[in-house]
Amino acid sequence: MGQRKTSWIFDSRYISDKIEEDLRPAKNNMRLVELFMAIATIIALLGLLAMSSYYADINTKDVAIRKVFGSDASKETKKGIKEYMIMVLLACLIGVPLAVYTAGEYLKQFTYKIEGYWWIFVVAVLITIFFAFLSVFWQTRRSALTAPAKELKKE
Hints:
Elements: H1 15-68, H2 73-107, H3 119-144, H4 148-152
Helix pairs in contact: 1-2, 1-3, 2-3
């Protein structure tokens, strides 16, 4: 009977290469999540623009009537921004706790925990408020500067 030789496979890689290989699926998942987040952000911003445009169009007649009774464009702009920003802040108050919970659940699966990621949600809320303000300001200002007679003739 012949003797069987056993060969040992020796893996001579650096530990950093081994860690990189083990984390490749997680990194690929994160790239996919980043792509979907970018697409979702673009869709959300377009939706925000559409909603503010719709909101301004609905209130154009009301603004025109108030302007006939003595209001001015700056008061109407402030009123429109205030009403819409309250809705945006309410949405952020609902969305941020859900996002924190979801992120916490996702991060539980990793051995090394990430601490102090709360600031990303603050930045997201600030960016949302900024873009919501710009969008609503632009639409509301356009609506407030429309001549009341022109708007009231539409009906």
